[in-house]
Amino acid sequence: MRLAWMILLTTLLAVPVFAGEFTGKVVGVLDGDTFDVFHNGRAERIRLNGIDCPEKGQAFGQKAKQIASDLVFGKEVTVQPHGHDKYERTIGEVLLPDGTNVNQELVKEGWCWWYRKYAQGDTVLEGLERKARESKKGLWADPQPVPPWEWRKRK
Fold first, then answer.
1. Distance between CA atoms of 66 and 62, rounded to whole angstroms?
2. Alpha carbon distance 30, 47 (integer Å)
3. Is the pLDDT of residue 153 over 50?
4. Which of 9, 68, 69, 124 is at a distance of 20 to 30 A from 37, taking alpha carbons?
5. Catalytic residues
6. Beta 22-31 vs 90-95: how paired, if at all?
7. In this structure, are residues 85 and 47 in contact, taking their beta carbons and an 8 Å threshold?
């Protein structure tokens, strides 16, 4: 019995624990979907969950970055982490003090794609993208916008 408890305790201690939600000031905007948020005495890189904005060198990339910067730079935001990506960035939802979900807002205004590969079944992002496309908002004004994942493959 004692051995069973030791194994259970060891197993529980070995399970990675993801930090919970946190608040911090946005101190940098790298592109439309990647920000630096001051947290625990340092800038923590945040990759927005479920969306993919055009790259900086791509059509609409600079505009997406500017829109994102206007939304968040210098503001206190709340980050709801969903783990980390292969580059060690924190993947998460970013919320403004008024409750606005930045991830959703960028899709709604037409500055990024719903990233189906990483947010399968997200009906909110799916619906926001569909409405932005139909309204020809943001990058959807282009009759054939190139998704960033395709643009990256070409580079």
1. 6
2. 10
3. yes
4. 124
5. 47, 55, 89
6. unpaired
7. yes
pTM, entire model? 0.85
What is the 3-state secondary structure of the chain? Answer: CHHHHHHHHHHHHHCCCCCCCEEEEEEEEEECCEEEEEECCEEEEEEECCEECCCCCCCCHHHHHHHHHHHHCCCEEEEEEEEECCCCCEEEEEECCCCCEHHHHHHHCCCCEECCCCCCCCHHHHHHHHHHHHHCCHHHHCCCCCCHHHHHHHC
Distance separating alpha carbons of residues 17 and 5, to the nearest angstrom: 20
Q: Yes or no: say if 128 and 134 are a contact pair by the CB < 8 Å rule.
A: no
Q: What confidence tens digit (pLDDT) does each residue in 123-151 have?
A: 899 999 999 999 999 999 999 999 999 99
How many residues would you count in the chain? Answer: 155
